[in-house]
Design brief:
heterodimer, A: alpha/beta, Glutathione S-transferase Yfyf (Class Pi), Chain A, domain 2, globular, B: Fumarate Reductase Iron-sulfur Protein, Chain B, domain 2, 52% helix
Chain lengths: 298, 135
């Protein structure tokens, strides 16, 4: 089975651990990700002004690329890309006047009216692999791991592109169950990590990130998964600073959900690219005897 | 604090622009404050989102633009999904930001970011920040 795949910029640089672990996992499950030809940046955020159509052109062009590939579906891994592509798609489907303006502007592309379905990888796993089938393919169950599923904003808001009901998401919990881990529900699983405000208002972003991490720790989690490189930065890469300021009681290893998927499928550690995570991420897996490095050393 | 409401203080054009850019009927707001309750950034806001809505209804252009609230907003849409009146507050905040940004104002200066930050940060952090806070 082949499926069109939109990676997005960050997955080719800082978040190669998200992409490489996902592509290898899909290959192991018999699905080939076919990367879009000539894809461009989605714009990272959806334009919220009614008169700002020029910023919709980038994501729409990516959707046209999927159509040119003969696909009716495009899968994304990054939550922000998912949100931006899905919202541009809704705009092209639902707003006839704006659709006409955007199509008139893009004279190289064929007219587009939202024919392609934008699907996040978690939804794809549930609908095209299935949790029971995934569970049966797991070679190294993550038993003993108590993982907090962090959904964040862009998979769940606004409602018209939410992959699940914004207040009651369960997809990541089901995913963790399939991998043999124990999902640990926590109060702040849908709270914003501060997003791009880490640049403009770092104290505000660090404050919410600390609240999220502590909420996961208080609920009994020993690790946390997510699907967005910006959340990974705010929740994963700031922990030393948060710990030194006593904003969190201890560090929490943070993983992309696809890294735990690859690990549980018994794939080589190399595809997980733990070198791009914070050092505590690999250490923790070694302690749990879940990484290959530990097996070789032992 | 008493607020003077007169022809002089009510900026009708400002109200119209916010409604046009956001596509939202700001008069639907009945001041319940659910938006502020849902917002993760209120600790760092000088004015609650509810108040920004009221000030906008009253056309208090200068007071709204002096407030830092719309620049502290992370566009997480928590207010949008919780508003009982169905107002998309994230779009109202964007409209207020745009009215300033379109006067060629930047709220962050990319050239002043330190090297370590640039090396570590994912691109989406920079792209989204510059999209939201620069002209």
């Amino acid at each position: 089975m082949k499926v069109s795949y939109y990676p997005g910029c960050t997955l080719k640089t800082k978040a190669r651990n998200l992409e490489e672990s996902a592509v290898a996992s899909m290959s192991a499950l018999g699905v080939e990700f076919e990367e879009l030809p000539r894809w461009n940046c989605c714009g990272a955020v959806h334009s919220l002004s009614d008169d700002d159509l020029i910023h919709q052109v980038a994501p729409v062009r990516d959707l046209v690329r999927a159509q040119e590939q003969g696909s009716d579906t495009v899968v994304t891994l990054c939550s922000m890309c998912y949100n931006t592509l899905a919202r541009a798609n809704r705009l092209m489907r639902d707003d006839e006047v704006k659709r006409r303006t955007i199509n008139d502007f893009m004279d190289e592309e064929k007219d587009y009216a939202g024919e392609v379905e934008v699907v996040h990888f978690l939804t794809f796993l549930r609908d095209h692999v299935g949790w029971e089938a995934l569970r049966s393919r797991v070679k190294k169950p993550l038993s003993g791991m108590k993982v907090a599923p962090y959904y964040g904003c862009t998979l769940l808001r606004p409602k018209n592109v939410a992959i699940e009901p914004p207040g009651h998401p369960a997809l990541m919990n089901e995913f963790l169950w399939a991998l043999g881990a124990e999902p640990v529900d926590f109060a702040d699983k849908t709270l914003c990590c501060g997003s791009y405000q880490i640049l403009a208002h770092p104290e505000a972003a660090l404050g919410v990130s600390a609240a999220i991490l502590q909420s996961a720790l208080d609920a009994g989690a020993d690790s946390l998964i997510l699907s967005c490189p910006l959340c990974e930065y705010n929740l994963g890469k700031t922990q030393k600073k948060l710990l030194s300021r006593q904003k969190i009681s201890r560090e929490v290893p943070v993983y992309y959900f696809t890294q735990l998927l690859a690990l549980s499928l018994g794939l080589d550690d190399a595809v997980c690219r733990f070198d791009l995570n914070d050092a505590s991420a690999l250490e923790f897996l070694k302690c749990k005897s879940l990484s290959g490095a530990q097996a070789q050393a032992g | 604090m008493p607020i003077e409401i007169s022809e002089k203080t009510v900026k009708g054009e400002f109200i119209e622009k916010v409604m046009k850019l956001s596509g939202q009927n700001i008069y639907k707001c009945f001041q319940c404050g659910t938006c502020g309750g849902a917002c993760p950034m209120t600790d760092h806001m000088d004015t609650m989102p509810r108040k920004i809505m009221r000030m906008t209804q009253l056309g208090l252009e200068e007071a709204v633009e002096e407030s830092k609230t719309c620049w502290t907003c992370a566009s997480c849409h928590s207010c949008t999904v919780s508003c009982p009146r169905g107002i998309d507050l994230a779009r109202v905040m964007e409209a207020i930001r745009q009215l300033t940004l379109r006067r060629n104002v930047d709220m962050v200066e990319p050239s002043k970011l330190d090297e370590e930050t640039l090396r570590e940060l994912p691109q989406i952090a920079m792209v989204s920040c510059f999209r939201k806070l620069t002209s």
